[in-house]
Structures are given as structure tokens and as C-alpha cells.
Amino acid sequence: MANPLYNELNGGNNPFGQFGNMQNFMQRLNQLKQTGVNPNQMIQQMLNSGQISQDQYNAAVQRAQQIQQMMNHQNGS
Fold first, then answer.
1. Which of 24, 25, 28, 75 gives 20 to 30 Å between its CA and that of 34?
2. How far is CA 67 from each of CA 51, 60, 74, rounded to the nearest angstrom?
């Protein structure tokens, strides 16, 4: 049985909206890396400016940790 988060990323109740699935998410992540943008600095600016709330930030951090765990599991770590 697949991980529920994996199912979400690959077509279920997708938390990534515009990313579509895990493959698209990884492509967008690689594109971001190529721009040289610091995602931590970007999210901190959004938090400081009020574009996102502390609760939204906390939820995003939790989701990112889940994704990281899933990716580590897939890579055999």
C-alpha cells in the first residue's frame, strides 16, 4: 500500500495545485535551484510582509518535512 502523501502528490488530493504531481514538483524545484533564488529568504520575506500567516508557514514547513521524508525513503536513505 502506497504512502498517503505519495498518493496525494501523484494525483489524489494534491496539495501542490499547479505542480500537478511529484514529477512536475521535482521539475519546478530544479528550475528554482537554477535561478539562484534562496527559498528560505523568499519565504521569510513573505512571512515578514504578511503575504502568508505564521499558520500557513508552519503548515508549509510540516508538508516540506513530509516530502523530504518521502524522498529519503524512495532514495533508500
1. 75
2. 23, 10, 11
52: left (phi over 0), alpha (psi -120 to 50) or beta: beta
Q: Specify the pTM.
A: 0.57
Q: Exposed, middle or buried by CB within 10 Å (0-12, 13-18, 19+), for 9? A: buried
Q: Note the pLDDT tens digit of each residue in 26-44.
A: 788 788 888 888 888 888 8
Q: Do residues 33 and 40 make contact, with C-beta atoms less than 8 angstroms apart?
A: no
The radius of gyration computed from the CA coordinates of the chain, to the nearest angstrom, equals 14
